[in-house]
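Chapter summary example: a protein plus manganese (II) ion.
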Amino acid sequence: MTIQLQNLPYAENALAPVISEKTVQFHYHKHHAGYVQKTNELIYNTDLENKSLEEIILTAASDATYQTLFNNAAQAWNHQFYWQSLKPNAAASPVPEQLKIAVERDFGSVEELKKQLQAKGLAQFGSGWVWLVAENGKLSVVSTSNAQTPLTNGAQKPLLTIDVWEHAYYLDSQNNRAAYLQNVINTLLNWEFAAQNLTGE
Ligand code: MN
């Protein structure tokens, strides 16, 4: 068994103009595919070969000798989750009611959640990710560095993520991470996906 590169849930030009077709092509076919390929090379002929991607990540996270495997496997998972966290024309869809209630309880408003995603994403020094997570039923915004993922924090359930590595926005916005974050947050976040992850559907 090998780890599969899952298909994108939309066309490669469907996130334009915020994320161009060229960025999606490089990000998906070079970066994401590269992490999947490297993970498969590293598990080949080992006792991790028949494990799920999640099991590989948890095993690799607990052993420093697996650092390279962890980085590649976690990046494979994070990217798969990122593509699902985005949706073309997402601004046209309302935040599902159950998620909206939880957001208003824990952030005050959807606007405040968006502000925190922007602020945490901008504050992440160097490469990483910003996440909406649920922990003991309470929602919060966290950021992780490089390949780190809330998956390895047993208490945190990821609901959605935004990639803030430069390769996610440099072709479109050069160094302007703030513009990328603002446009993604306002127009591309897949709130239905976050709601499904919250309710476990
Ligand atoms: Mn990336």
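Key point: Residues 90-199 form a domain with the minor pseudopilin epsh fold fold (CATH 3.55.40.20).
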